[in-house]
Amino acid sequence: MMSIEVLRLLAIVCIAVFHAFLQQYVQAIWMGPHHPVSVAEPVSALASSRGAMWIVAMIMYCGAWGNHIFFMISGFFLIPRMCGAAGSSGYWNTQLRATGRRIAMILATVAFYLLLVLVAGHWAPSVSNDTQSASLVYELEFVWLYLAFVALAPAIAWVLNRLGACRSAVVAGAVLIAVYALNAYVACTWQAQYGQRTLLDWRKQMSAVSYALSFGLAGLLGWAVQHNSERRTEDKRHGVRHADRRPLWTIRGFWLCGVLVLLAVASVLTAVMVMRSSYVALYALSFKSTSLISFALAVCALMAAACPPLHARVHAARRAEAVVAALASGILGFYVVQTLASFLWKAVNARFLDPLLVRASSLQSGPAIFGELAAWIAVGAMLSLAYVVAVCLFDRCVRRPLLRMVHLSK
Question: What is the C-alpha separation between 96 and 107, in angstroms, rounded?
Fold first, then answer.
Protein backbone atom coordinates (compact mmCIF):
# COMPACT_ATOMS: atom_id res chain seq x y z
CA MET A 1 0.00 0.00 0.00
CA MET A 2 1.07 3.52 -0.67
CA SER A 3 2.27 5.75 2.15
CA ILE A 4 3.98 9.09 2.54
CA GLU A 5 7.36 7.45 3.13
CA VAL A 6 6.98 5.21 0.09
CA LEU A 7 6.10 8.31 -1.91
CA ARG A 8 9.13 10.16 -0.54
CA LEU A 9 11.45 7.33 -1.58
CA LEU A 10 9.79 7.07 -4.98
CA ALA A 11 10.41 10.80 -5.45
CA ILE A 12 14.14 10.33 -4.80
CA VAL A 13 14.33 7.48 -7.30
CA CYS A 14 12.42 9.45 -9.94
CA ILE A 15 14.74 12.44 -9.53
CA ALA A 16 17.78 10.18 -9.91
CA VAL A 17 16.40 8.45 -13.02
CA PHE A 18 15.44 11.82 -14.50
CA HIS A 19 18.98 13.15 -14.14
CA ALA A 20 20.44 9.96 -15.62
CA PHE A 21 18.93 10.79 -19.02
CA LEU A 22 18.40 14.56 -18.93
CA GLN A 23 21.45 15.71 -20.89
CA GLN A 24 21.03 13.12 -23.64
CA TYR A 25 17.32 13.91 -23.91
CA VAL A 26 17.91 17.65 -24.34
CA GLN A 27 20.55 17.01 -27.01
CA ALA A 28 18.21 14.63 -28.84
CA ILE A 29 15.42 17.22 -28.74
CA TRP A 30 17.49 19.75 -30.69
CA MET A 31 18.82 17.13 -33.11
CA GLY A 32 15.31 16.13 -34.10
CA PRO A 33 14.00 12.82 -35.48
CA HIS A 34 15.59 13.26 -38.90
CA HIS A 35 19.17 13.75 -37.73
CA PRO A 36 21.45 11.11 -39.29
CA VAL A 37 22.68 8.44 -36.90
CA SER A 38 26.43 8.64 -36.37
CA VAL A 39 28.93 7.09 -33.96
CA ALA A 40 30.53 10.53 -33.72
CA GLU A 41 27.26 11.72 -32.14
CA PRO A 42 25.96 8.82 -30.01
CA VAL A 43 22.88 10.77 -28.92
CA SER A 44 21.74 10.76 -32.55
CA ALA A 45 20.64 7.15 -32.00
CA LEU A 46 18.17 8.33 -29.35
CA ALA A 47 16.95 11.19 -31.54
CA SER A 48 16.26 8.79 -34.42
CA SER A 49 14.20 6.33 -32.35
CA ARG A 50 10.72 7.69 -31.68
CA GLY A 51 9.91 4.74 -29.42
CA ALA A 52 12.93 5.36 -27.20
CA MET A 53 12.20 9.10 -27.21
CA TRP A 54 8.68 8.36 -25.95
CA ILE A 55 10.06 6.32 -23.05
CA VAL A 56 12.64 8.94 -22.09
CA ALA A 57 10.08 11.74 -22.51
CA MET A 58 7.81 9.95 -20.01
CA ILE A 59 10.77 9.72 -17.63
CA MET A 60 11.26 13.48 -17.97
CA TYR A 61 7.99 14.10 -16.12
CA CYS A 62 9.65 12.43 -13.13
CA GLY A 63 12.09 15.25 -12.43
CA ALA A 64 9.60 18.02 -11.68
CA TRP A 65 7.24 15.45 -10.13
CA GLY A 66 9.89 14.37 -7.62
CA ASN A 67 10.75 17.97 -6.75
CA HIS A 68 7.08 18.84 -6.25
CA ILE A 69 6.66 15.79 -4.00
CA PHE A 70 9.69 16.81 -1.93
CA PHE A 71 8.28 20.27 -1.24
CA MET A 72 4.68 19.08 -0.93
CA ILE A 73 5.41 16.50 1.75
CA SER A 74 7.20 19.12 3.83
CA GLY A 75 4.36 21.61 3.48
CA PHE A 76 1.71 18.95 4.10
CA PHE A 77 3.05 18.24 7.58
CA LEU A 78 4.62 21.54 8.63
CA ILE A 79 1.88 24.03 7.83
CA PRO A 80 -1.21 22.31 9.34
CA ARG A 81 0.50 22.01 12.73
CA MET A 82 1.36 25.68 12.61
CA CYS A 83 -2.14 26.66 11.47
CA GLY A 84 -3.59 25.03 14.57
CA ALA A 85 -1.32 27.09 16.81
CA ALA A 86 -1.34 30.34 14.82
CA GLY A 87 -3.95 31.99 17.03
CA SER A 88 -2.28 31.15 20.33
CA SER A 89 -0.08 33.41 22.42
CA GLY A 90 3.62 32.82 22.04
CA TYR A 91 3.14 31.46 18.52
CA TRP A 92 5.97 33.42 16.96
CA ASN A 93 8.51 32.68 19.69
CA THR A 94 7.74 28.96 19.56
CA GLN A 95 7.87 28.78 15.77
CA LEU A 96 11.04 30.85 15.51
CA ARG A 97 12.87 28.42 17.79
CA ALA A 98 11.57 25.37 15.90
CA THR A 99 12.29 26.95 12.52
CA GLY A 100 15.80 27.91 13.60
CA ARG A 101 16.46 24.28 14.51
CA ARG A 102 15.21 23.07 11.12
CA ILE A 103 17.37 25.61 9.28
CA ALA A 104 20.41 24.57 11.33
CA MET A 105 19.78 20.95 10.31
CA ILE A 106 19.68 21.89 6.62
CA LEU A 107 22.87 23.94 6.83
CA ALA A 108 24.60 21.20 8.82
CA THR A 109 23.68 18.68 6.11
CA VAL A 110 25.20 20.86 3.38
CA ALA A 111 28.31 21.49 5.48
CA PHE A 112 28.74 17.77 6.23
CA TYR A 113 28.69 16.68 2.60
CA LEU A 114 30.74 19.68 1.47
CA LEU A 115 33.42 18.69 3.97
CA LEU A 116 33.41 15.11 2.66
CA VAL A 117 33.80 16.30 -0.93
CA LEU A 118 36.62 18.67 0.01
CA VAL A 119 38.43 15.85 1.79
CA ALA A 120 37.92 13.62 -1.26
CA GLY A 121 39.41 16.40 -3.39
CA HIS A 122 42.82 15.84 -1.80
CA TRP A 123 42.97 12.39 -3.42
CA ALA A 124 41.14 13.23 -6.65
CA PRO A 125 41.84 16.79 -7.91
CA SER A 126 38.96 16.61 -10.38
CA VAL A 127 36.55 16.35 -7.45
CA SER A 128 37.31 19.88 -6.27
CA ASN A 129 35.89 21.26 -9.50
CA ASP A 130 32.40 20.29 -8.30
CA THR A 131 32.64 22.43 -5.16
CA GLN A 132 33.04 25.82 -6.78
CA SER A 133 31.01 28.68 -5.32
CA ALA A 134 28.80 28.77 -8.42
CA SER A 135 27.88 25.15 -7.80
CA LEU A 136 27.00 25.86 -4.18
CA VAL A 137 24.76 28.79 -5.05
CA TYR A 138 23.17 27.72 -8.31
CA GLU A 139 23.14 23.92 -8.43
CA LEU A 140 21.97 23.62 -4.81
CA GLU A 141 18.99 25.83 -5.60
CA PHE A 142 16.46 23.21 -4.45
CA VAL A 143 18.12 22.95 -1.04
CA TRP A 144 18.15 26.74 -0.66
CA LEU A 145 14.52 26.88 -1.76
CA TYR A 146 13.66 24.27 0.84
CA LEU A 147 15.46 26.34 3.48
CA ALA A 148 13.54 29.45 2.41
CA PHE A 149 10.17 27.65 2.48
CA VAL A 150 10.90 26.23 5.94
CA ALA A 151 11.79 29.72 7.13
CA LEU A 152 8.57 31.17 5.67
CA ALA A 153 6.30 28.35 6.88
CA PRO A 154 5.23 30.10 10.13
CA ALA A 155 4.20 33.20 8.15
CA ILE A 156 2.35 31.10 5.55
CA ALA A 157 0.46 29.26 8.30
CA TRP A 158 -0.41 32.53 10.03
CA VAL A 159 -1.82 33.97 6.78
CA LEU A 160 -3.86 30.82 6.10
CA ASN A 161 -5.23 30.92 9.63
CA ARG A 162 -6.24 34.57 9.23
CA LEU A 163 -7.91 33.97 5.86
CA GLY A 164 -9.67 30.76 6.85
CA ALA A 165 -9.90 27.57 4.82
CA CYS A 166 -12.44 28.77 2.23
CA ARG A 167 -10.80 32.07 1.35
CA SER A 168 -7.38 30.42 1.37
CA ALA A 169 -8.64 27.87 -1.17
CA VAL A 170 -9.95 30.65 -3.45
CA VAL A 171 -6.67 32.56 -3.27
CA ALA A 172 -4.66 29.37 -3.88
CA GLY A 173 -6.80 28.55 -6.92
CA ALA A 174 -6.28 32.01 -8.41
CA VAL A 175 -2.53 31.87 -7.83
CA LEU A 176 -2.41 28.36 -9.31
CA ILE A 177 -4.06 29.50 -12.55
CA ALA A 178 -1.78 32.54 -12.85
CA VAL A 179 1.42 30.61 -12.13
CA TYR A 180 0.76 27.82 -14.62
CA ALA A 181 -0.39 30.25 -17.30
CA LEU A 182 3.02 31.93 -16.97
CA ASN A 183 4.70 28.51 -16.85
CA ALA A 184 3.07 27.57 -20.15
CA TYR A 185 4.48 30.76 -21.68
CA VAL A 186 7.95 29.98 -20.30
CA ALA A 187 7.87 26.39 -21.58
CA CYS A 188 6.91 27.47 -25.08
CA THR A 189 9.22 30.48 -25.47
CA TRP A 190 12.33 29.97 -23.36
CA GLN A 191 13.69 26.58 -24.36
CA ALA A 192 16.35 27.74 -26.81
CA GLN A 193 17.69 30.37 -24.39
CA TYR A 194 17.61 28.16 -21.29
CA GLY A 195 21.36 27.58 -21.32
CA GLN A 196 21.91 31.34 -20.90
CA ARG A 197 19.61 31.59 -17.87
CA THR A 198 20.51 33.63 -14.80
CA LEU A 199 19.09 33.62 -11.30
CA LEU A 200 17.77 37.16 -11.84
CA ASP A 201 15.70 36.23 -14.90
CA TRP A 202 12.01 36.19 -13.92
CA ARG A 203 11.48 33.07 -16.01
CA LYS A 204 14.12 31.26 -13.97
CA GLN A 205 12.47 32.52 -10.78
CA MET A 206 9.19 30.91 -11.87
CA SER A 207 10.72 27.62 -10.70
CA ALA A 208 10.89 28.99 -7.17
CA VAL A 209 7.35 30.35 -7.45
CA SER A 210 6.05 27.00 -8.73
CA TYR A 211 7.63 25.04 -5.91
CA ALA A 212 6.54 27.63 -3.34
CA LEU A 213 2.99 27.14 -4.62
CA SER A 214 3.37 23.38 -4.20
CA PHE A 215 4.64 23.84 -0.64
CA GLY A 216 1.78 26.17 0.32
CA LEU A 217 -0.95 24.25 -1.50
CA ALA A 218 0.13 20.99 0.14
CA GLY A 219 -0.04 22.75 3.49
CA LEU A 220 -3.58 23.86 2.71
CA LEU A 221 -4.53 20.31 1.70
CA GLY A 222 -2.97 18.96 4.88
CA TRP A 223 -4.95 21.48 6.91
CA ALA A 224 -8.16 20.39 5.16
CA VAL A 225 -7.40 16.70 5.82
CA GLN A 226 -6.67 17.46 9.47
CA HIS A 227 -9.86 19.50 9.85
CA ASN A 228 -11.95 16.75 8.23
CA SER A 229 -10.45 14.12 10.53
CA GLU A 230 -11.12 16.22 13.62
CA ARG A 231 -14.70 16.90 12.53
CA ARG A 232 -15.41 13.20 11.92
CA THR A 233 -13.96 12.34 15.34
CA GLU A 234 -16.18 14.96 16.96
CA ASP A 235 -19.25 13.72 15.08
CA LYS A 236 -18.59 10.15 16.25
CA ARG A 237 -18.28 11.35 19.82
CA HIS A 238 -21.69 13.00 19.61
CA GLY A 239 -23.30 10.06 17.81
CA VAL A 240 -23.96 11.94 14.57
CA ARG A 241 -25.57 9.74 11.93
CA HIS A 242 -23.28 8.65 9.05
CA ALA A 243 -20.26 10.06 10.88
CA ASP A 244 -18.18 7.23 9.38
CA ARG A 245 -18.84 8.38 5.82
CA ARG A 246 -15.84 9.94 4.17
CA PRO A 247 -16.01 12.71 1.54
CA LEU A 248 -14.94 11.63 -1.93
CA TRP A 249 -11.78 13.74 -1.79
CA THR A 250 -10.56 11.84 1.30
CA ILE A 251 -10.79 8.41 -0.36
CA ARG A 252 -7.50 6.98 -1.61
CA GLY A 253 -9.08 5.31 -4.65
CA PHE A 254 -10.32 8.66 -5.96
CA TRP A 255 -6.79 10.05 -6.12
CA LEU A 256 -5.32 6.83 -7.48
CA CYS A 257 -7.82 7.05 -10.34
CA GLY A 258 -6.60 10.60 -10.89
CA VAL A 259 -3.02 9.34 -11.13
CA LEU A 260 -4.01 6.70 -13.70
CA VAL A 261 -6.01 9.19 -15.79
CA LEU A 262 -3.15 11.70 -15.79
CA LEU A 263 -0.65 9.01 -16.77
CA ALA A 264 -2.91 7.97 -19.65
CA VAL A 265 -3.27 11.59 -20.81
CA ALA A 266 0.49 12.14 -20.53
CA SER A 267 1.17 8.95 -22.50
CA VAL A 268 -1.14 9.97 -25.35
CA LEU A 269 0.08 13.58 -25.49
CA THR A 270 3.70 12.44 -25.46
CA ALA A 271 3.05 9.90 -28.22
CA VAL A 272 1.43 12.57 -30.38
CA MET A 273 4.35 14.98 -29.88
CA VAL A 274 6.93 12.25 -30.57
CA MET A 275 5.39 11.62 -33.99
CA ARG A 276 5.78 15.25 -35.09
CA SER A 277 8.56 16.38 -37.40
CA SER A 278 10.18 18.32 -34.54
CA TYR A 279 10.65 17.48 -30.88
CA VAL A 280 10.40 21.08 -29.64
CA ALA A 281 6.75 20.76 -28.61
CA LEU A 282 7.61 17.47 -26.88
CA TYR A 283 10.19 19.28 -24.76
CA ALA A 284 7.59 21.86 -23.72
CA LEU A 285 5.41 19.17 -22.10
CA SER A 286 7.97 18.47 -19.38
CA PHE A 287 10.14 21.59 -19.49
CA LYS A 288 11.81 22.01 -16.09
CA SER A 289 9.37 23.03 -13.33
CA THR A 290 6.70 24.30 -15.74
CA SER A 291 4.96 20.96 -16.34
CA LEU A 292 1.33 21.07 -15.29
CA ILE A 293 1.18 17.29 -15.77
CA SER A 294 3.99 16.75 -13.24
CA PHE A 295 2.32 19.10 -10.77
CA ALA A 296 -1.10 17.46 -11.09
CA LEU A 297 0.45 14.00 -10.74
CA ALA A 298 2.22 15.17 -7.59
CA VAL A 299 -1.01 16.48 -6.04
CA CYS A 300 -2.87 13.24 -6.78
CA ALA A 301 0.01 11.07 -5.55
CA LEU A 302 0.35 13.08 -2.34
CA MET A 303 -3.34 12.81 -1.53
CA ALA A 304 -3.42 9.11 -2.43
CA ALA A 305 -0.58 8.54 0.01
CA ALA A 306 -2.04 10.77 2.72
CA CYS A 307 -5.61 9.45 2.67
CA PRO A 308 -5.91 6.34 4.88
CA PRO A 309 -6.85 3.04 3.23
CA LEU A 310 -10.27 1.51 3.80
CA HIS A 311 -8.70 -1.59 5.33
CA ALA A 312 -5.87 -1.95 7.82
CA ARG A 313 -2.49 -2.98 6.46
CA VAL A 314 -1.03 -6.37 7.25
CA HIS A 315 2.00 -6.65 9.49
CA ALA A 316 4.33 -7.49 6.59
CA ALA A 317 3.34 -4.28 4.79
CA ARG A 318 4.02 -2.23 7.91
CA ARG A 319 7.45 -3.82 8.27
CA ALA A 320 8.24 -3.09 4.63
CA GLU A 321 7.25 0.54 5.07
CA ALA A 322 9.55 0.78 8.10
CA VAL A 323 12.45 -0.18 5.84
CA VAL A 324 11.30 2.32 3.22
CA ALA A 325 11.05 5.06 5.87
CA ALA A 326 14.66 4.44 6.87
CA LEU A 327 15.79 5.04 3.27
CA ALA A 328 13.34 7.87 2.55
CA SER A 329 14.76 9.98 5.38
CA GLY A 330 17.82 10.51 3.19
CA ILE A 331 16.06 12.65 0.58
CA LEU A 332 17.70 15.90 1.71
CA GLY A 333 21.10 14.24 1.83
CA PHE A 334 20.56 12.82 -1.64
CA TYR A 335 19.79 16.30 -3.04
CA VAL A 336 23.07 17.59 -1.65
CA VAL A 337 25.15 14.57 -2.73
CA GLN A 338 23.70 14.65 -6.23
CA THR A 339 25.05 18.18 -6.65
CA LEU A 340 28.27 18.29 -4.65
CA ALA A 341 29.39 14.77 -5.59
CA SER A 342 28.14 14.72 -9.17
CA PHE A 343 31.50 13.19 -10.16
CA LEU A 344 30.24 9.90 -8.73
CA TRP A 345 27.41 9.62 -11.24
CA LYS A 346 29.60 10.94 -14.07
CA ALA A 347 31.97 8.04 -13.46
CA VAL A 348 29.11 5.54 -13.45
CA ASN A 349 27.70 7.06 -16.63
CA ALA A 350 31.05 6.92 -18.44
CA ARG A 351 31.68 3.33 -17.38
CA PHE A 352 28.30 1.73 -18.01
CA LEU A 353 25.90 3.96 -19.98
CA ASP A 354 28.00 5.78 -22.57
CA PRO A 355 29.24 2.51 -24.19
CA LEU A 356 25.63 1.34 -24.64
CA LEU A 357 24.71 4.60 -26.36
CA VAL A 358 27.76 4.39 -28.63
CA ARG A 359 26.85 0.81 -29.52
CA ALA A 360 23.30 1.90 -30.40
CA SER A 361 24.64 4.61 -32.71
CA SER A 362 26.75 2.04 -34.57
CA LEU A 363 23.70 0.00 -35.58
CA GLN A 364 21.82 0.49 -38.84
CA SER A 365 18.30 -0.89 -38.43
CA GLY A 366 15.61 0.88 -36.42
CA PRO A 367 14.52 -2.16 -34.35
CA ALA A 368 18.13 -2.95 -33.43
CA ILE A 369 18.73 0.64 -32.35
CA PHE A 370 15.57 0.62 -30.25
CA GLY A 371 16.58 -2.65 -28.59
CA GLU A 372 19.98 -1.27 -27.63
CA LEU A 373 18.41 1.96 -26.39
CA ALA A 374 15.91 -0.04 -24.32
CA ALA A 375 18.88 -1.77 -22.66
CA TRP A 376 20.51 1.64 -22.11
CA ILE A 377 17.35 2.95 -20.42
CA ALA A 378 16.92 -0.18 -18.28
CA VAL A 379 20.54 -0.17 -17.12
CA GLY A 380 20.37 3.57 -16.39
CA ALA A 381 17.23 3.11 -14.29
CA MET A 382 18.72 0.20 -12.32
CA LEU A 383 21.97 2.07 -11.69
CA SER A 384 19.99 5.11 -10.55
CA LEU A 385 18.10 2.93 -8.08
CA ALA A 386 21.35 1.45 -6.76
CA TYR A 387 22.82 4.97 -6.48
CA VAL A 388 19.83 6.14 -4.44
CA VAL A 389 19.99 3.15 -2.09
CA ALA A 390 23.74 3.62 -1.54
CA VAL A 391 23.47 7.35 -0.81
CA CYS A 392 20.40 6.99 1.41
CA LEU A 393 21.99 4.17 3.42
CA PHE A 394 25.12 6.26 3.93
CA ASP A 395 23.00 9.22 4.95
CA ARG A 396 20.99 7.10 7.36
CA CYS A 397 24.02 5.45 8.95
CA VAL A 398 26.43 8.41 9.05
CA ARG A 399 24.87 11.86 8.72
CA ARG A 400 21.75 11.34 10.82
CA PRO A 401 23.58 9.83 13.83
CA LEU A 402 26.03 12.74 13.74
CA LEU A 403 23.21 15.28 13.67
CA ARG A 404 21.48 13.36 16.44
CA MET A 405 24.60 13.74 18.56
CA VAL A 406 24.30 17.53 18.31
CA HIS A 407 20.50 17.41 18.81
CA LEU A 408 19.64 18.48 15.26
CA SER A 409 17.88 15.24 14.30
CA LYS A 410 15.56 12.75 15.95
Answer: 16
